[in-house]
Amino acid sequence: MGKIGLRKLNGFIDKDLKKKIQSDLQNHLIFRESDIECCVYHHLRRFLHGDGKWRVVTRRYSRRAGGKYPDILIFRKEKPLIAIELKWGRKRISRTDRKKLRKYQKKISAKKTFFVNVHYDLFHYKKLKKKTRNEKFHLKEIIVDLGYPRKEYSKWRKEHDKYKKSL
Prior knowledge:
Strand order of the largest sheet: 1-2-3-4-5
Structural class: alpha/beta
Largest sheet: 5 strands, mixed
Helix content: 40-55%
CATH class: Alpha Beta
Number of domains: 1
Number of strands: 5
Order of helices and strands: HHEEEHEHEH
Distance between the termini: 37 Å
CATH architecture: 3-Layer(aba) Sandwich
């Protein structure tokens, strides 16, 4: 694929990754937060495959971030640039998650932080109304639901429950 810049990667995470996660959810590949982590890791690795300067790691412990670790951390060379926090079925971003994301941005110098919330029923999700000045530039909420109208939801749910029972 060639050289991938930070802007191109941000665009992929913001738009394409959301569609890919939604497709994984629709195809019954996601049942809990750990499944989201696997899918996101897979899609990011495939996207960044052609540029050897990028590294994607999961749950990387960081002393500089007070012992906290993001679900996904993306490095260019040895520098962490993007931190991603993944959640399953939240109604909104919590204070704790906001604090963690701010810490990643300040302590490990992440240029951008993403909060990715995935669930089949996010009709009532409340995005942040007031962001701090810093959050306006560095924090992006990505909300992924089924993308189906309410009428099609019950059909999908029945099929999803079949898969869930066989796990």
